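Journal club prep — side note

Before the paper discussion, L.F. wants everyone to see what a predicted structure for a comparable chain looks like in token form. Sequence:
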Amino acid sequence: MTARKRAAPAPKGRKGSTPRKRVTRKSSTRKQGTSESSGRTKSTLAAPKVGRREKSKDQIRKRIVSAALQLFESKGFDATTTKQIATRAKIAEGTVFNYFETKEDIALHFFELEVDHAIDTVRADPRLRQAPLEEKLFALVQTQLDYLAPHERFIGASIVAALRPSSKLGLSVQSLALRNRYLTFVQELIEESTPEDGMNMLSWVAPQAFWIYYCGVLLYWLHDGSAGKQSTLAFLDRSLKLGVAVLRKGAVQ
């Protein structure tokens, strides 16, 4: 007789229960991959919304500043109201206040743009890196004057407004911070154009003296009736050469 083969033992488990099916890693990986893909899709869709919001805010800010500058130039700084600015910008007056507390804050923002533009222009010009100090300072001031040129009436009015004790354009925290940023850049230009052993007391006070000088140039420019403001540029060229020569002479002594 042939011996019967024993049947394979049944898997252990609870009595009467059906053995559980194993969940393969493949299916688990698929679920996880789907979840991660879904997460990436959601984050990818959400990102542009933030960008669009910021872009929209920037566009509104530009509209407010543009409208304000047009009114400052045509009606005068003192005569312009925030309501008129809102009307010109085609937004509600309350929206203006969401971006700027007063029209003086709009003016300060414009001057911040002017300073940023001048600094960036000088830094981006490779020719100026090895140029003499007087040439760097000439380029800086000329860039500022070119930026301000379309708004002469407003610039003159802002200088008068800055003389008022209560004006933000004068001795406010914002205006002082802007001036310090500008003069810090002037100090950088002086230091990179002066040998280390050539720095002296005049070198450290030069930025403050330059600020007074710049204000004088601005007043000269406002009253310059020559074609293309050539008299201002000639004055700027001569006076900067003289001032830098004095600075270098002090360094030698």
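L.F.'s comment for the group: The two ends are 126 Å apart (CA to CA). Keep this in mind when we get to the figures.
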